Amino acid sequence: MMEKEPRLQVTLPGLTMKNPVMPASGCFAFGREYAELFDLSELGAVAIKGTTGEARFGNPTPRVAETSSGMLNAIGLQNPGAQAVRDEELPFLAGYDVPVLANVSGSTPEEYVEVVQTLTDAPNVGAFELNISCPNVKEGGIQFGTDPDAAAALTAAVKQVSTKPVYVKLSPNVTDVNAIALALAVEAAGADGLSLINTLLGMRIDAHTGKPILANEKGGLSGPAVKPVALRMIHDVRQVTNLPIIGMGGIQSAEDVIEFLFAGADAVAIGTANFTNPFVCPTIIRELPSWLDYLAMESVGDLRQQGVNI
Amino acid sequence: MKNEQMMVVENKTIAAKTHELTLSGPLVDAIDQPGTFLHVAVPGDDLVLRRPISIAAVDQDVGTCTIVYKEMGVGTGRLARSRAGDQLEMLGPLGEQGFPVEKPQVGEDVLLIGGGVGVPPLYYAACELVKRGVTVSVILGFQTAAAIFYEREFHELPGCDVRVMTDDGSNGHPGTVVDALNERPSPPDWLFSCGPRGMLRAIETHAAHPKTNGYVSLEERMGCGIGACFACVCETGDGSSYRKICREGPVFAFKEVVL
Ligand SMILES: Cc1cc2nc3c(=O)[nH]c(=O)nc-3n(C[C@H](O)[C@H](O)[C@H](O)COP(=O)(O)OP(=O)(O)OC[C@H]3O[C@@H](n4cnc5c(N)ncnc54)[C@H](O)[C@@H]3O)c2cc1C
Ligand SMILES: Cc1cc2nc3c(=O)[nH]c(=O)nc-3n(C[C@H](O)[C@H](O)[C@H](O)COP(=O)(O)O)c2cc1C
Ligand code: FES
Fold it and tell me: In its keyword annotation, does this UniProt entry include Flavoprotein (chain B) (predicted)?
């Protein structure tokens, strides 16, 4: 176990985190596999795989393709369904001293509400993260994520049944104006925080066959290639709201985390980099204190303060 | 499952665009089942995904293992440039279900069928079977003469019957591994296979016999390699559920999953 570093602690609605680092939704399943490699209690939080009302099988394979400094995925929200997550996965995670950010998806507003109802009383669920920005499913997901009115209505509906704070995960597949409008709309509807960014819609074609590499044709781009987009969006959204922001998109190192905190994020999530290096989260957490020393900052919170004032 | 730096002992070309990489490191201690694989981090910062490569042989006494890979793109191309003394980071051994080499009994008819770079894990399987006194027959399929590798290595295993097939007939027998399978007088007791999906599908169809215990090793594009990302799933044979190839495979019994 790592020593507790008070300088790294961050307290966000529903999430009392030892440090600002969590694995991002969809890249860590429900923690079981990575638990074989390191102690999950070292993490600031765990964002679980996007959960829907019923179990979903997801899209045909191939579901991933590599790109320059990134990857495309079209998993299609495969998950065991809310009841199984509640009965089998959350109790496993409860064996660790780490809060859970429960990522929720659905095809209809009713489905989001149903998932939140099923999971909201699980003791280790600290907060919800509404995935209104998944580019890989035909219904739901992205359509809520591009229309501020739909996003606000969904947020309000979920807030009514949730006993835990609610974060809304925004998509980069929108215009600047739309991103700001979405952030303000969900804030007005009662969101307790924002997560950004989800993946960017992309595509690859096999040069030998002329056919798309992904069976789904298109997929979500993640990894270092999207980092500048993520930083830009966090920076812009930070100008208009004081809601807590969980920043993500291409983080691979402690230096990247510092960059996100300066951009205005309060905490970060790490996705694709877990595949590159399964120890990336604990490694970054270990390296953060020396970055604070180097920057002559007392705590992680100071970075965010500096950032807002840029 | 470990994630470690392994040292390149040797990296040599053994057929057209095909290389054999011998590695040493403590991870070798954990290797004990043919069919399992390594998730290889390719040198360079621009590649975010690792490359899954099957274990072709292991020598616990010397502390080395061997992988054989074909240059297919940027990642395997870069691996081909690694030299003795270089360090490569690997996660492994991965996969909970390999070839069940402990099951066939001495005297039973054991057939191994490999296509192209599907051959390496079968070589590891053959070594383990032969160690237990079980003799094996192998059918190796390649596109052309220049692609052939490990023919001699299989011949050197005691009692091993080797048949090489090439698609263009430039070496061995002309035709596919399925042609060779169909020419056999009786169904084998055990059949282990690894190769392209189409080949595995044909084998499962042609070798479906109540006497035959058949197993196939599957490939799929992978993200995490350990069961966390749902990239590599396939449907179970009855359509009711799914398996993760990286975690619950990569080897499955005939009909366990949809090929
Ligand atoms: C369990 C398993 C065992 C394997 N064992 C061997 C082996 O022993 N020898 C061997 O030569 N090859 C093996 N392969 C295939 C090998 O992983 C690919 O040929 C290799 O990843 C191609 O990488 P690249 O960078 O050269 O190609 P690129 O096409 O540049 O790779 C781009 C992306 O596609 C993925 N990819 C491309 N082809 C495949 C494929 N056939 N299977 C899975 N992912 C792929 C890569 O991993 C990478 O993420 C195995 C695959 C799996 C899943
Ligand atoms: C394989 C994979 C699966 C994902 N699944 C989900 C998901 O279920 N729900 C969700 O909100 N985001 C999902 N995402 C998006 C990530 O949580 C994250 O927002 C995005 O990948 C950007 O971060 P990164 O560049 O660090 O990966 C997924 C991403 C990947 C690569
Ligand atoms: S590669 Fe991630 S689940 Fe198999």
Answer: yes
CA B188 to chain centre: 20
The DSSP annotation for A88-142 comes to IIHHHHTTSS--EEEEE--SSHHHHHHHHHHHTT-TTEEEEEEE---TT-SSSTH
- Nearest CA distance, A126 vs chain B (angstrom): 21
Taking the C-alpha atoms of residue B224 and residue B50, their distance in angstroms, rounded to an integer, is 8
Q: Cβ B228–A58 below 8 Å, yes or no?
A: no
pLDDT in tens, A175-193: 888 899 999 999 999 999 9
Q: Which CATH number fits domain B2-94: 1.10.10.10, 2.60.40.3450, 3.10.20.30, 2.40.30.10?
A: 2.40.30.10
- In 10 A of CB A43, how many CB atoms? 26
State the Cα–Cα distance between residues A137 and A106, nearest whole angstrom. 10
Q: Give CA–CA dist A145/B53, Å, rounded.
A: 39
Strand B110-115 to strand B136-142: parallel, antiparallel, or no bridges (unpaired)? parallel
- Looking at residues A105-134, what average pLDDT do you find? 94
- The answer to whether the CB of A43 is under 6 A from ligand 2 is no
Q: Are A272 and B48 in contact (CB under 8 A)?
A: yes
Which residue among A71, A273, A279 places its CB closest to the CB of B3? Answer: A279
B76 is in an annotated binding site: yes
Structural class in CATH, domain B110-253: alpha beta
Is residue B244 within 8 Å of residue A75, measured between CB atoms? no
pLDDT digits (tens, 9 = 90+) for A251-291: 999 999 999 999 999 999 999 999 999 999 999 999 999 99
Measure the CA dihedral A98/A39/B53/B198, to 10°.
-40
A118 in contact with chain B, both atoms CB, cutoff 8 A:
no
- pLDDT per residue as tens digits for the range B179-221: 999 999 999 999 999 999 999 999 999 999 999 999 999 999 9
Q: DSSP of A218-272, one letter per residue? A: EEEEESGGGHHHHHHHHHHHHHH--S-EEEESS--SHHHHHHHHHHT-SEEEE-T
Nearest CA-CA partner of B206 in B176, B232, B239: B176
Average pLDDT taken over every residue of chain A: 93
Question: B220, A36: Cβ pair inside 8 Å?
Answer: no
Minimum CA–CA partner of A48 in chain B: B228
User: Where in chain B are the domains?
Assistant: 2-94, 110-253
The confidence score (pLDDT) of residue A144 equals 78
* The model's pTM: 0.96
Query: What is the four-CA torsion angle of B98, B103, B105, B110, rounded to 10 degrees?
Result: -40
